[in-house]
Design goal:
With 350 residues, the protein is α/β, with parallel strands linked by helices. The protein is built from 11 helices and 14 strands. The two termini are 30 Å apart.
Amino acid sequence: MILKNIFLQDFRSYEKQQFSFENTTLIIGPNTSGKTNLIEAICLLSTGKSFRTEKDIQMLRFGEAIARVKGSSDDEELEVVITNGLVNGKSQYKKFLVNGVAKRRVDFAGNFLSVLFSPQDLDIIIDSPGLRRNFLDEVLEQVDRGYRVAAISYSKALRQRNALLEATRETGMRNQKQFEYWDNLVIENGNIITQKREEFINFANSAVKDIFDFVINYDKSTISKERLLQYETQEIASAVTLVGPHRDDFSVSMFGDGSNTMHDIKFFGSRGQQRLAILQLKILELLFVEEKMGNRPVLILDDIFSELDAIHINLIFDEIGKQQTIMTTTHKEFVPKDLLKSMKIINFTK
């Protein structure tokens, strides 16, 4: 998988600019120079959504109504058009095109494969369960159309079911037929999400780990008619659905020294061990995408060198030549001179 070039128009800080990429590309520039905006645009071509915001309108250049991100990947032209909500009098926030043909996001995502490693990823293990669920979504939405469909359907059904719970709490009356319809949808799609998350976690647990050995423990929130009935009273009181994959979590356990004991790395691992685990997890993501899609994804490294020590950086450099790699950094001094000779350099400081 190769990204040849990308064109940005009124996207974030860019008025109109085009960039081209080679097998290894290094983007150098100070903070706020637009490096992460460019990375966001590249990832947008992979997933059809931003990894930085849930509000599409925030990707528009200030004062503009329409933004475009267009890229060439292998033999395909991919484009995302973002608007402030109105196009020719019709409500529309995003439009996706593959070779000029309009697609839904569910069919757009996965045409261009990438794996992003950013400073925020270093908190996947130690921060909130939402970060870990987002990580699972990012992995699976690229490689599995069934997962994308189930995730969209589940999210919509969950919102409707929560609205019914709120209405029930306010009126004291429960419309059983309406609940039955939305219950069936969240159960059906929730179980698909759970199954596919388990597939990735099983892959990660069975894979060879050259950098850091660990086991992922999937704390799944199973959703079924029995469990919804079990929590019926509490759900009405809180007006939210209390079971399902939106409540999933996972933990990462490392092996104890000289024994078969396991320790949760969130609580018992050093910061260095936690970072090694995240690096290993990202490499497993690369391998999983390649296995599922038959194509090595582009590796995107967004300003991580300032967050890692020399040992971790060298481990990352070992991975660079295995696929196209696009990196950003504030200082090229972070990159060994012998590697710089083989890289294309985009300098934002000039």
